[in-house]
Amino acid sequence: MTEQSENLSVSKRDFLKGAATTLVLASLPLAARKALAADDWDVIVIGGGTAGLPTAIFAAERGAKVLVLEGSHRIGGTMDRSSGQMSAAGTSLQKAKGIKDTPQDHFDDVMRISRGTADPAMVRLAVDNAADTIEWLIGLGWTALPEHPVKGQGHEDYLIARYQWGPEGGTSIYRALEPVVMKLLADKKITILTETQVAGLIQDGSGAVTGVTAEGPEGTKIDYRGRNVVITTGGAGGDPEMFEKLNGAPLYIRMAYPYNRGGGVRIGLEAGGYIRGQEHYLCNDGGVLTDTNYPSPQLAAAITTEEQRPPWEIFVNQRGERYTREGDPSVDNREHALLKQPGHRYWAIFDDAILDQAPPFLRGWSKERIRAGFGKHHMFFKADSIGELARWTGIDAGGLEYTVAAYNESQTAGKDPVFGRTHMPLPISKPPYYAIRLQGYSILVFGGLAVDTSLRVIREDGSPIPNLYAAGEVLGKAALTGSAYVGGMSITPALTFGRMLGQKILKLSA
Question: Model-level pTM?
């Protein structure tokens, strides 16, 4: 699974701009693609992204005959829009800074942050091999930011600094991989078909996978035979129906990679696999969306962390109740509290004095721009009384009036008896009153194809589907992070599992 930035809305313009940072490959003519159907491939990789490229690279370097099928017009998957955050223990980057760390420490930290909900066997597999992945990338020219590794950013910190990324985020990773891919292409050790969707898997009478049926840009379906098939198609943030199936929650926001449509999960299920991890869905701390026609683009990101901006507002749910400590230093606490609220949404409530005196609540917005938003944007509300504000927002009026009055009493007393908040500079008492509606969301899928520790896709009885493997976000975020966002446990396992598959797990012809 790749760790896409959740601060960025990917428009068509952004997507095409991002494509310039990755390798665009022209689709082969139909006759050439049909000719490839006569070959027997050692490895067919479905998806040319974060997990797929390492699989193809290492399999080809072992002498395998490799075919990569990519739905987009270019390779690289989500790396051009990813934060590129990786974590590993025992790396040369840590040693250079005198940081002592072990895979066991990393494992313990992941299980701590995930509250024991991550899959221990999968986490162990990832952390035990993560340092080798970092060293491999360094050997290819990848570099981390000078101050890295760090303990964290944006979510729960590690206890030891093992978290790093490059100056261009995920693009830094891609730039390290591209020359390797280009050489393998030039040496005819890898064949890549772009604009090619896999319609299904081919299985023999015993259920073993023997190839794939792929559909090119003109709609013609062609069968390709393969000894091993690896699904690395990413998540489902580009398909609301599949996203909800894998998360048990709606796709609220439109910002995911458009080719992440859940196709890998679909073909894995059709082959006899099953989904696990949906129960661990977790939304983030929320942002302001353009409207309620989900999935919606994001209008603005809120600053909700106390260390970045101490809170002046209160956060209430649809019942008008405060549900968490505003600005709680634990992002995980706030996210889990929001997960329990109706519709995963809340409102920031404040008054004219707070709007006038507080630092802006929305990232990159001035006070003037925020003030101008009331009466203009769907998620901005303004009224002369708390009761009227409740009616405009759809919040329970009695609940909101009680909550504001109780908060004002706490602010006067200088003590919050409910959540222990300490930064309460002003009461909410000077009309007009304001509300900004925020929506918790994720573009990542928590449910995904179940695999064993050999990365073989398995049936519900635990038996593997012969010759079928999977890696990356198609496994679901929950496998490596449980019900949490654990730093670097998305991209690093995707790269690592791809390396492991290509390096030693796949069975190749003699």
Answer: 0.91
